[in-house]
């Protein structure tokens, strides 16, 4: 019988009051999910050869590099002896900023003395949003998230953040609820024999929207930073946002190849198959599901492509 392999991806193992981007799986759910996988599948490393498995297999990955991967996920992984790969976005390792969607959330959706209107001005964009209620600010959040992901390069995004903080009337600060790994905690996580660290760009842009040189810079700088920090070869990568043809394309794959990347993960759903391109590995998003919902999703995934 032919065995099958599915790659799963997580972001956070954390219990968060308001998880608008649905990035969190609670520590309890995570533990249940891992126990189920350990019992029913081979669990393979992202970087290894998946063709030799004698049983249906899963591969566990995390994107972005949140601190809770160390504080909550690692103990479960170690206890159950489950390997996982964490793809780290290196721009937040200094801990002076949050991942950009979290920073946007901190500015617009946490407690504060909000004025009635936010006006955004630069050489291209002149926009205005009402901000006097949570609903209006949520609208503004969604619009800015959309623009920042799809139309704005990282340097323009930075300038927008300056305007947003000025508008909020506060010095830029980091909301500890959205804490990412630091240099030190990334090293600590990488010390575990169950953890592989991969790269995930510097500032988490949708790569295919950038010029080739910028894409290359985002990939190479994140790889170089991690290699220097961890004193090991970094050749695994996951594309921010990860949709093929939208967030990465042939130019992104070429930029990965010249940067020494050997395997790159997408967010295209489905099972992995042997003939697949190693630069477009499908992965399946896992949510905050209890055992019943999780089993149903996993069973469906493996049944679907017999
Ligand atoms: Zn990401």
Explain what the structure shows.
The protein has 306 residues and is an alpha/beta fold. It has helices at 27-40, 68-80, 100-109, 134-150, 154-168, 183-190, 212-230, 250-258, 291-304, and strands at 5-10, 12-13, 24-25, 42-44, 57-64, 84-88, 117-121, 126-130, 195-199, 236-238, 263-265, 284-285. It is 39% helix and 16% strand. The protein starts with a strand and ends with a helix. The model has no long low-confidence stretch (mean pLDDT 95). The chain is built from 9 helices and 12 strands. It has 2 domains: 5-94 and 179-304, Glycoside hydrolase/deacetylase (TIM Barrel); 113-168, no CATH class. The chain is globular, with a radius of gyration of 20 Å. Zinc ion binds at residues 63-64, 200, 204, 240.
Bound molecules: zinc ion
The CATH topology of the largest domain turns out to be TIM Barrel
Rg, Å, rounded: 20 Å
Percent in helix: 25-40%
**Overall SS class:** alpha/beta
**Termini separation (Å)?**
10 Å
Strand content: 15-25%
CATH superfamily of the largest domain: Glycoside hydrolase/deacetylase
**Secondary-structure element string:** EEEHEEHEHEEHHHEHEHEEH
Q: Got a strand count?
A: 12
Mean pLDDT, to the nearest integer, reads: 95
Which term fits the overall shape? Answer: globular
- Largest sheet geometry: 6 strands, parallel
Helix count, DSSP H or I runs of 4 or more residues: 9
What's the architecture of the largest domain in CATH terms?
Alpha-Beta Barrel
């Amino acid at each position: 019988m032919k065995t099958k392999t599915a790659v799963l991806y997580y972001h956070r193992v954390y219990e968060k009051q308001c998880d608008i981007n649905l990035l969190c799986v609670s520590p309890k759910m995570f533990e249940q999910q891992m126990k189920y996988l350990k019992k029913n599948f081979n669990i393979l490393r992202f970087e290894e050869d998946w063709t030799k498995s004698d049983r249906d297999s899963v591969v566990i990955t995390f994107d972005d590099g949140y601190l809770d991967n160390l504080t909550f996920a690692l103990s479960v992984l170690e206890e159950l002896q489950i390997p996982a790969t964490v793809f780290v976005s290196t721009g937040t390792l200094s801990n002076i900023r949050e991942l950009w969607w979290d920073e946007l959330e901190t500015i617009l959706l946490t407690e504060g003395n909000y004025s009635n209107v936010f006006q955004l001005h630069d050489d291209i964009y002149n926009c205005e949003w009402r901000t006097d209620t949570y609903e209006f600010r949520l609208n503004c959040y969604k619009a800015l998230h959309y623009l920042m992901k799809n139309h704005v390069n990282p340097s323009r995004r930075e300038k927008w953040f300056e305007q947003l903080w000025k508008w909020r009337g506060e010095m830029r600060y980091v909301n500890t609820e959205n804490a990412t790994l630091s240099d030190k905690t990334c090293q600590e996580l990488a010390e575990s024999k169950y953890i592989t660290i991969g790269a995930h760009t510097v500032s988490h842009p949708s790569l295919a929207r950038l010029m080739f040189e910028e894409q290359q810079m985002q990939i190479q700088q994140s790889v170089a930073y991690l290699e220097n920090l961890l004193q090991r070869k970094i050749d695994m990568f996951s594309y921010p946002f990860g949709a093929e043809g939208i967030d990465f394309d042939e130019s992104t794959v070429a930029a990965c190849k010249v940067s020494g990347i050997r395997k790159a993960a997408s967010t295209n759903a489905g099972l992995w198959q042997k003939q697949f391109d190693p630069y477009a590995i499908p992965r399946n998003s896992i949510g905050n599901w209890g055992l019943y919902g999780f089993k149903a999703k996993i069973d469906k995934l493996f049944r679907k492509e017999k």
